[in-house]
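Checklist before submission:
- one chain only
- standard amino acids only
- sequence pasted in full

Submission:
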Amino acid sequence: MTSLNYCSTHYGLFTLRDHGTRINGIRNYYSTNFGFAYLGDALDLCRKLPKSSVNLILTSPPFPLVKKKEYGNEDPDKYVDWFKRFVPEFRRVLKRNGSLVLHIGGNWNRGSPTKSLCIYELLLELSKTFHLAQDFYWYNPAKLPSPSEWVSVRRIRVKDAVDTIWWLSKVAYPKASNRRVLTPYKPGMVKLFQNGYKPGARPSGYNITKKFKRQNGGAIPPNMLMFSNTNSNDRYLTGCRDAKVEPHPARYPIGIPDFFIRFLTTRGDVVLDPFGGSNTTGFAAEELGRRWLAFELRENYLEGSKLRFESLLDERR
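Returned file contents:
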């Protein structure tokens, strides 16, 4: 992890040396070398941010679930109207070449083995303001069979193990580079590089040229991201158990923010998570040397999120 250094560098929104740095007079709940967490309503806090001050908004808002969760969520019928309130502020604070990445899981209609179209209705609404740069999908191979009534009891559906992730942007060519998220070549590809191949048209219609043999440092990843979400002994959960703090019940794996932060930003950029929860986004940004902001409405979740950064916060005391 990046160690904390007292630094006088100014970055517009922040003076990193000042633990009491504020956004329009609001004191942060805690801070690290690169970021600041704030307690409060996401919309109110976004309104305090300067225009065009954020490179990436990366967040997992409360899902439109029929069954209420302890962290709060809107009914599917009201979800689009609820989320629309944030859109003007998200667009205002984003830089021209910035991105908005939303992880939103799907939901089922009440009492029926059919899926709601709520998240797609939201996407259509967002497309009035943003470009859909690309759709991504998170596959969690360790996800339990759900919904249990239709999957485990009646056996008329398969388990719902894929969530949608929308990558939206203000312009058609936002800041991005897949060179920052290359994955290791598979053994078959390495063997192909070693043994060579015959250029030409393939049955699929693709024309494989000699350029295909060029090694570019890794394979370009697909838009299907596979991360298990089974870690029960990471720093956050261990810290919560030791401190007898209730962990946030809906956390995405660090692989998701790590991927998008590397893909869509460079060191020194600003990443905002307006629905911070356990602040996985801020932690990933910290480790990658990006400045970050996290907003959270519930103090118990914000207090728990501090445990991710305990080693850094210890150095500040």
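Reviewer check: Residues 1-21 have pLDDT under 50 and may be disordered.
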